[in-house]
Each structure stands twice: as structure tokens, then as C-alpha cells.
Request: fold
Amino acid sequence: MSIEFRHVSKTFPDGTTAVEDFSLTIPSRETTVLVGSSGCGKTTLLRMINRMVDPSSGSILIDGKDIAEIPPVGLRRSIGYVMQNSGLLPHRTVADNVATVPMLTGVPKRKAREDALALLDRVGLDRALAGRYPSQLSGGQQQRVGVARGLAVDPNILLMDEPFGAVDPIVRDELQQELLRLQGTLGKTVVFVTHDIDEAFLLGNQVVILQRGGRIAQVGTPKEILANPANEFVADFIGAKRGKRRLRIDETGRGEDVLLVDAAGYAAGVLSADDARLVLTGSGPKSRSVSNKTDQAGDA
Amino acid sequence: MDWVWTHLDLISSETLAHIGLSVPPIVIGFLVSIPLGYWASRSAVARSVLLTIGNVLYTIPALALVVLVPVVLGLSLLNPGNVVVALTLYAVAIMVRSAADAFASVSADVRQSATALGYSAAQRFFRVELPLAGPVLLAGIRVVSVSTISLVTIGALVGIPSLGSFFTDGFQRAFLLEAAVGFVLVLVLAAVFDVLLTVLGRVLLPWNRGLRPTAAARRVIAQQLPPIGAR
Ligand SMILES: Nc1ncnc2c1ncn2[C@@H]1O[C@H](COP(=O)(O)OP(=O)(O)OP(=O)(O)O)[C@@H](O)[C@H]1O
Ligand SMILES: [Mg+2]
Reply:
């Protein structure tokens, strides 16, 4: 299920141009992350894929078929969608929320409920939560339910709009790992929107860095982008974190292990030298540095 | 008190008449306000037009309306339908605002998520927006219920029997006990209706149980208690 944007533009009725001449191919069964700062058109781009927003010009193709010809309601039922504040229906229990789309498409209630319970297992939620209402869950649990609901019809395409944007860093970390694990077994075509470059590099096989108006600043694998930022904008965008990526060896502690600190001087970790002998090169102690700038992207 | 025991028949028939005049305006007012309120929540122009009409309607004195309705509709002055029509207009005037607020209180996130899931427009309305508007609609209909039950008494002034007849008759004969009985029964009836609506709300809106009333619902309750004394 590849998705192709061909010269897509969107101008809203009030005259705001959210996206201008956007072209991109989103490969099948991989995760593509759209990353960019607020208002650059990420949500608009995502919603054009399930026709919640129709382009003003240009076309979008799924597996070569122009989606303008597919009735929106049916299209949406075949595509998973997870949003920031989970968008769970507050008047439905967790199980019913997960079973919503299957029930809309005519799956018998009992079967839909059973499948929903299995999906709760899958996203790491206790079945005991099935009978609760969304307001009785924590933010992280709600997001997991949102993911389970997105997967309920076993869609080929999963759209995720800042799904982990509103949870605390520890929970976000868990959710990200969970998504990586799920994606490893499911192999969906995932389109993921975030404004967090770390999240983009962690999750994306393909990362698309966007500028205002949905203009593409750079497309590539995390490694490619980190190694060769296409321009100043990209360098800046990923550079905001560059200080944190570049670690220095702390001079104070001298022992078997070497303490690493980031640009702000905070301890970032310890480099163990017990079996792999650490050879430091360079002229003076000040310039000795170990860069881990690609470690986030290491296995992407 | 003897009067009460000797007039139980009259009391029960007037009570039934009162209920008969109260229920249709409450029900019809509710049903009519749903589409109007939904429309008002979707369009700023519709909202201001509908709410303005509602406000104007609401400022017409009840007695004038009860007299005007038969003239306009060509009904007999003694037709109970006059009271029903007049009170339905009031019910709509109050309820449209509540309904507009009720639908506006449904979060945009939830609406968009329902769309994203693949609800058609009609499914989304009946299965998502209407139930979620429920708490505020309930707050609104409770106000309408109290207001209608008290306004039905106006009909007695033009000879349409209800518990209000005890007021008119009691005052004419300077027989305060009778007027007091009417007064108490109106209060009791309003309270019973309110309890019934609350129970209905609990049954129909189980997810809302135990939650505090939403800000929007509280606003409706606080602002829209009709100025009955002003009439
Ligand atoms: N329905 C709409 N009507 C008018 N303008 C809109 C509408 N939706 C979005 N916009 C505008 O289009 C631009 C892009 O919006 P979009 O929601 O796609 O941004 P985003 O990248 O998702 O931002 P964020 O990170 O804050 O979610 C913004 O300027 C926004 O104000
Ligand atoms: Mg957005």
C-alpha cells in the first residue's frame, strides 16, 4: 500500500494555504514520519490521505488508484487513524471504542468485542480495562486504546497524528518502543506526524522534514539526514538537538570508566572501557570528543 | 382541609389535565429544538437568527400568547390546543439555546475522530453527537419542564382547566386553601417531572454517571432558569 502525493496543494476557504505543491512517495510497509514545526501543514497532509481534507489541486494515489474516486466513508474505514488526544468516544467503553469500526462495517457485536479484547492484549493493556470509560484511564492508557482502535480493522495504512504528544516522557518512551515492536510484526504502511525530531529519527524509516506550507526541506533515512543536512534549515532543525547529540569526555573522573557529558554539561552516560580498550585520539584533552550523533539512527 | 377530601376527584382530574397540557409542549419543544439547535451550532448566522427569534418569542407575555394563538390559528378561545401551542413556542425559545450549546459542547476532537473512523454524517449525528450533547440537553429540558408546568396555569385565566384553575377559583372566592392546594400541587408536579427526567438521563447517559456536570451544562442551568416572576 504505497501512497503517492502528486503536486498537491490545499488552500482552505478562509484563504490559508496550508500545503503548496507537495509531491512525495510513501513506501509500502514502512514508517514515514512527517516532521516540522507547528502549522507547517502536517495534519493537513495526513488528513488528505483519508479524505478528511480534499486537496485544492493535485492528486493522491494509493497503490496507483486516485483516492478522489473512492467514497470517503469507506476509505476512512479501511485506514487506521490515531490522534493526539486519542479522540476516544467518551460515551463508549474501552472495548466498544476499539470495536467501533468493525461494528460499523457489519462485524457482529460479539466477534467485534472478542477481537477488541485480543487487541488490548496486543497493545499491552489489561483486559480488565475493557469495561471502563475513557475518562477513567490515564493518558498513556488512552493512547494505547487509540492505537488498538486504529488497528482494529487490520488496515494496511495507519495514520498517526502526534499520537504520543500529550503524554509524559517516560510513557512516551514506552509507547514508542511498543509501536516499534508492533510495526516489526505488523509491517503496516505507517504515516506518523510529529514535531519532535528525536521521535522522527527513532521511528521513521523515511523522514520528511517540512517547512511552512508543507514544503519539503529534506527527505531521507535518518542516517542520510543526520550525515548530510540538505540546507541550513535542516541543519538548524536537527541542530537544535545537536548540542545534545555531541558528547564530551568529562575530565574530572579518571578511572576505568569514562564519564560523558553533553553540551550543557549534564552527565549523559558512561563509556565502559573494561574489555573494549578505549583509545582516545586528538591533540589536547579539550578536543577529545566522542560523537554519538548517529546513534539514534543506528539501526534504522 | 375537608375541602381537599371532598374534592379529590376534581383535584385528580385537574392534575391529569395539567399533565396533559404540559407533556406535549415539553416533548415537541425538545424534538423541534434538536435540529434547530444543531443547525445553530454549525453556523454562526443561523445561531444569531434563531436565538434572536427565540428571545423575541420569550418576551411575549404568556397571557398575550394564549390569547393570540387562537386568533392566528383560528381556534376556539377555549381550545386547550392554544395552551399547548403557546407553551411549545416558549419551550422551543428556551430549548434552542440549550440545544445549540449542547451540540457546541461536543469536542471538535471527538467529532473529527468519529469522522476519521468512518462514521457517515447521519451515523455520527445519532451515535456520537446526540449522545454527547445529552448532558447539556438534559439540563435544558429540565428547565423547560419546570417552566412549562408553571406556565400551564396561565390557561386558567382564559378558562382552560388545569391546576391553575384552583388559583383563579380560590382567589375569586377568597378561598386561600384552594389556591394553596393548586400552588403546592404545581410544585410537586414540577419536582416529580424533574426527578423523572434525571432518572431518564441516568439511564440514557450511563457514561455521564458520577461525572460532575460539564461546565456547559452548569451554565445552562444557571443562566436559563426562566424569569417566571417577571411574567
Ligand atoms: N480547517 C482549516 N481552515 C483554515 N485554515 C486551516 C484549517 N486547518 C488548518 N489550517 C491552517 O493550515 C495551516 C497548517 O495547519 P496544520 O493543522 O496542517 O498544521 P500542523 O503542521 O499539523 O500543525 P501542528 O503541529 O500545530 O498540529 C495552519 O496555518 C492552519 O492554521
Ligand atoms: Mg497538527
In short: Chain B has a mean pLDDT of 89.
